[in-house]
Amino acid sequence: MDNLGLFLHCFSRGHEAIRVEVLHILSDIFMTHGMGILTEDTVKPESIISIWTKAIRSEDEPEVAAAAAESLAKLMLASIVTDDDILKTLVETYFLPQTSQNDPLKQALSYFFPVYCHSVPENQYRMARVRVSDTCLTIDCCACDPCTAPSGGGSRGR
User: Fold this and answer.
1) Residue 102 domain flag
2) Closest of 89, 125, 83, 129 to residue 109, by C-alpha
3) Which positions ≥6 away from 83 have C-beta within 8 Å?
């Protein structure tokens, strides 16, 4: 656990192949030991999560984005990471036009979503919360949008 800082440094300064390896190493460490090994004295959990969210949005390094998606998917399937925001990031990434040509990323997420949703009921509820929220974000929302309207229903009024 003393080397987590070194891995973070390698991720921030390394080239694409190093970044991919760091994501795999971190994923393996947390699959084995859980996120509970992180403390304020070692590395903050937010720092680790931010690495994955930064990596998954890496448009100029598709292999890094795919490795991040695969790592997060594994951690979420194992219920090691259970944050709704991380799941939302995965959903958004799947539907982004910028990732449409990243076949390894698409393959990882195409496998992940159905398996995740069918594995335990809590995951279905989490996905339902993210889906509704994500739909409201991707629609061209305005003041009369049903996503933001107090009644929560009706037509868009256009």
Assistant:
1) yes
2) 89
3) 49
* pLDDT digits 0-9 by tens, 108-135: 999 999 999 999 999 999 988 886 555 5
pLDDT reading at 30 higher than 80: yes
CB-facing half-sphere around the CA of 55: CA atoms within 13 A: 34
Sign for the pseudo-dihedral over CA of 91, 93, 99, 105: negative
Domain that holds residue 42: 4-138
**Phi and psi angles of residue 11, each rounded to the nearest 5 degrees, phi first:** -65, -45
Q: How many domains does the chain fold into?
A: 1
Tokens of 59: 């448009």
* C-beta of residue 88 within 8 angstroms of C-beta of residue 113: no
Report yes or no on 145 lying in a domain.
no
Instruction: Characterize 136-156 residue by residue with b for buried, 16 or more Cβ atoms within 10 angstroms of its Cβ, and e for exposed.
Output: eeeeeeeeeeeeeeeeeeeee
55-72: per-residue pLDDT in tens?
Answer: 998 889 999 999 999 999
SS3 3: coil
**pLDDT of the residue at 28:** 93
> Where does 14-120 have alpha helices with state H?
16-33, 45-56, 62-77, 84-95, 103-119
